[in-house]
Structure formats: C-alpha cells, structure tokens
Specification:
The chain has three domains: about 120 residues, PAS domain (Beta-Lactamase); about 170 residues, Histidine kinase-like ATPase, C-terminal domain (Heat Shock Protein 90, 2-Layer Sandwich); about 130 residues, Response regulator (Rossmann fold, 3-Layer(aba) Sandwich), CATH 3.40.50.2300. Helix content is about 45%, strand content about 20%. The chain is built from 16 helices and 17 strands. A five-stranded antiparallel sheet has the order 2-1-5-4-3, with helices on both faces. A five-stranded mixed sheet has the order 7-9-10-12-11. A hairpin with a 5-residue loop joins strand 11 and strand 12.
Length: about 525
C-alpha cells in the first residue's frame, strides 16, 4: 500500500507543473497575459503584457486596474478589463492602435472568468495575441482588390472618354483648317485642341496607373511638367499654402516615362501640401542640374558619378522624427490619420525613380519641414527636343477607298470628314453588321477597312475575321479605347495572328491616322 501511495504521489506531481513552472511558461509566451481579481486588482502580468500595456509590471501588479485613458498606452485594454468585472461570460474583441513612430499595433483580446470550486467568479485572465502582421496582410489584400476593381472601372470610363475626345480633337482640327489666319476664332480652336490633347494624355496616365504596363522611355524636358503640375495643384490646395517655383538655367532633359514623372511629382507635392494643411506654409519646388562626384556616388547604391537633373520638393510642415524617417518607404506605413493615406505613395515613387536609374533622397527634422530630392540621370538635350527642328510636313493622303466602321455617330461624322479632306473615298457604317453586309455585297470596292474594336453584337476582331474570310489579305486597321493589357484590349501579336495589320489606341489624331493608313496601304501593295 505504501508503494502504491508513493506512485500516486509521484504521478500527481508529474501532472501538476506547479505555479513556478506555469509562470515561467507564461513569461516565454508571445501572448500578453494578465490575471486580475473580481475587485479589479492586478495580480499577475507577463513580459508581453508589460509591452502591450506600456507600463512596467512593478507599477501594475498589486494595484487596481488603471483608469481607461484611451489615448494612453494600454488604455483600451484597461477599459476592456474594467468592463469585464462582474460579468460571468467570456468577452473578446480586437484592439488596434496607430502610432506615427511604431506603426500599426493590433491585439486579438479574450477575457475569461475563472471560477472556484463552487462556481463563483473570483478572478479573470486576459490573453492578448499580437495580430499586427495579419492585419497588415488583410489591408494589403483589400488594397489589391480595390486596385483591381478600380482598374476594371477605369477601363470602361477610358473607353467612353476616348470616344468623346476623338470627336473633340478631330472636329477641332477640321475647324482649324477652315479658319483663316488672324481670325479670333482660331485661337479659341487651338485652345480646344490643346485641351483635347491634354485629356488624351490624362487618360493614358490613368490607364497606366490602374494597369501594369511597360514603361516607355523617351527624352523628356522636366520644366513644362513642373509648371503644369504646379498649376493643377494650385487649384486643389488651401490658399494658406504658398507655392514657390525655382527653376535653374538650361534645359532639364531626362530619359524617362513622362507619365511616371507626373506621378512622382504629384505624389511628392500632395504629401508636402498635406503636411502643411493645418497651419499653412511654403511648398517649394526646385529644378536644376547637378554633378555627382565619385565620393558622393560611393555613399549611395543608387548613384554613380556624372550629371543629374535634381527635382526637389520641400515643405515647411511639421517634419518627421528619425523613427518615422526609417519607415517612410515601408509599404502600407502612413502617418496620415483617419484612413486618408494608403502607405503606398512613397514606396511607389522610390520604385519609379530607381527604375529610371535615379535616387530618392530625403531630409527632415521635426518642426522644420521635409525635403525630397529626386535625382535622375541627365540626358542629351539634342535630337528629339531640338528647338530648331523643321516644321512637320502636311499629313499624307491618297485616293483609295476606305470602309470606316464605328457605332459612335460623332466619331463616324468626324472620321468621314477628316479622311475625305485627305482625299480618300469613304464609306461609313455605324454598326459592324451593316459594315459586313456592305463588304459582302461588293468585296472588291474597298482598299482598306478601318474599324473600332468595342461594338455591340459583333466586335472589331470578329468583323475582321468575317471580312478576311470573304477576301483574304485585305488591309484592316483596328482602333480601340482599351489598353492592350486590359481584359477588353487586344495585343498586336493577337491582331497579327488574325490578319489585322495595325492596332491603335483612341483617340487617334489626324496625322497619326493619316500616316497609319498610308503605311498599311503601301505595305499591302509592296507585299
């Protein structure tokens, strides 16, 4: 019997780890653990709880639960602990806090009552698990889904807007042809045409932002970009913010994707204005040419010795602490309150700058503002940007017969008139089915088919297949309001596999259309 009792005692001791072992285990746990009694006195807090509450354990254990100040560290946790007193059920929830220095902090918290042998609640235990990483991933997924939805929406808007711009641009060009030099109407029409072209560029920017697309590098002069962005910005920021423009002498030319250069400047200027919106201040934009020496280049992995164009955006706002500066390029990190920031702007800007072979540098000090310096390798200002370039020759024309297909009446009107001015004999069809009937009746009456892609009942691609089945080899030119990388777009490779000679994005200006027509017709004859 004594041996049996000793065995039972040994087994019981092995199963009961004891308070010291339990305390040691909780100290190693990453979850915050707090034990408090029904009177509101804290009896135990582990190391993770000390971090979560922001108060040393020596100031917690043996003392009442502190007053729930939601603005202080751990304030929301203290409120949850107090609200649990006298409740016999489990309480759970998620507590999140945003801190400009530390970033997002999120806890999944559960407060459980502890009952004695008679079922009375004498104590409570709070367990809080850090889910900050999971919350950031959820935000990233929501942002990705939102961008996908925006991309789909923008594609449809861009298509409709491109149709409108096509009519505006074409009719303005035709009206300018009929307006004599010196007429006061001519200047008005030139402004209409300029606005239409700016709208065309804006749609291209929107499509680039909403869809992944290849960068198109070309010599770009930055001075007009800076002036245009600052003019647009003036209308959208408070009058209490003064805009100061400082552009150095010479030409500031870089090899860049002009759409993405706009994106860089818009993002940096918007951030600068946000930093000053409460009290106002000065937004300074400087543009100049600098020479990076070998010693400076050695201090940055993104720089090399040589000439650079430096674009600086400086504000007189609240500035940033060293801790914030360390994190500004982290994805989804933002100092903007109330959900106004995504935390994606600066990482995207730095990515664009690096893809252009440049560097993004930042200087900031609390209370003294922030300056971002964009350094892009300088390009040769000669060649495409030469001011002495000869004026363009007249748009080429011809005498061939063209079947023009579009279900937008305004585009048919403008297109038929513009092509007629170039000398072509045009037959217009306002639907793909009508065009197919016209072609089927007289397949040899046309030298070229120009068709829109997005049409009801039969798309431009389907019409092209039907026409090529009737008369193989006839030149077909397709134009579309959707970018090639969108779900509704068509790539040049796919078009060629069908037999379509060229694909162009709307709106197509008269010279571009004229050159494409002449190129396709001439290649067809030589082939």
């Amino acid at each position: 019997m004594d041996q049996i009792r000793r065995n039972r005692t040994r087994t019981t001791n092995q199963r009961d780890p004891g308070p010291r072992l339990l305390a040691a285990a909780s100290e190693q746990d990453e979850a915050a653990i707090v034990v408090f009694d029904s009177g509101g006195t804290i009896l135990y807090a582990n190391r993770a709880a000390e971090k979560a509450l922001g108060i040393a354990r020596s100031d917690l254990v043996g003392r009442p639960i502190p007053a729930p100040d939601d603005g202080a560290p751990g304030g929301k946790l203290f409120r949850m602990m107090r609200d649990s007193l006298g409740i016999r059920d489990v309480r759970s929830g998620r507590i999140t806090a945003e801190d400009n220095d530390a970033g997002l902090y999120a806890l999944d918290v559960r407060v459980s009552p502890l009952r004695d042998g008679r079922g009375a609640v004498r104590h409570y235990v709070l367990v809080g698990r850090d889910v900050s990483h999971e919350v950031l991933l959820e935000r990233e997924l929501r942002q990705a889904q939102k961008m996908e939805a925006i991309g789909a929406l923008v594609g449809g808007i861009a298509h409709d807007f491109n149709n409108i711009l096509g009519t505006v641009i074409s009719c303005a060009e035709i009206a300018l042809d009929d307006t004599p030099e010196g007429s006061p109407v001519r200047e008005d029409l030139e402004h209409v045409l300029k606005a239409g072209r700016r709208g065309k560029g804006l749609i291209r920017q929107i499509l680039t932002f909403s869809r992944s697309s290849e960068q198109e590098f070309s010599p770009s002069q930055l001075e007009p970009v800076v002036k245009e962005i600052l003019k647009l910005l003036r209308a959208s920021i408070p009058a209490s913010i003064e805009i100061c423009e400082k552009i150095g002498p010479g030409r500031h030319v870089v090899l860049a994707d002009s759409v993405q250069v706009h994106q860089i400047l818009i993002n940096l200027c918007t951030n600068a204005a946000h930093a000053m919106q409460a009290k106002g201040g000065v937004l300074e934009v400087r543009l100049g040419r600098i020479e990076v020496d070998p010693q400076t280049a050695a201090g940055s992995p993104d720089l090399h010795a040589g000439p650079y164009i430096q674009l600086t955006v400086k504000d007189s706002g609240h500035g940033m602490s060293p801790k914030v500066l360390e994190r500004i390029f982290d994805p989804f990190f933002t100092t903007k309150q109330g959900g106004t920031g995504t935390g994606l702007g600066l990482p995207v800007v730095r990515g664009i700058v690096r893809s252009h072979g440049g560097a993004l540098l930042v200087e900031s000090e609390p209370g003294r503002g922030t300056a971002f310096h964009v350094l892009l390798p300088a390009a040769d200002p000669a060649g495409e940007l030469s001011e002495n370039a000869s004026p363009p020759s007249p748009a080429p024309g011809g005498r061939e017969r063209i079947l023009l297909v579009d279900d937008e009446e305004d585009l048919i009107y403008a297109g038929e008139k513009a092509l007629g001015r170039l000398g072509y004999e045009v037959t217009a069809a306002s639907s793909s089915l009508e065009a197919l009937e016209l072609f089927r009746a007289k397949p040899e009456s046309f030298d070229l088919v120009i068709t829109d892609q997005n049409m009801s009942r039969m798309s431009g691609v389907e019409l092209a297949r039907a026409i090529l089945a009737i008369r193989p080899g006839i030149p077909i030119l397709l134009y579309t309001g959707f970018s090639p990388d969108s779900d509704e777009g068509i790539t040049l490779e796919r078009a060629h596999s069908i037999g379509i000679r060229e694909v162009h994005m709307k709106p197509l200006e008269r010279r571009d259309m004229a050159e494409a027509i002449r190129r396709v017709l001439d290649e067809s004859r030589s082939g």
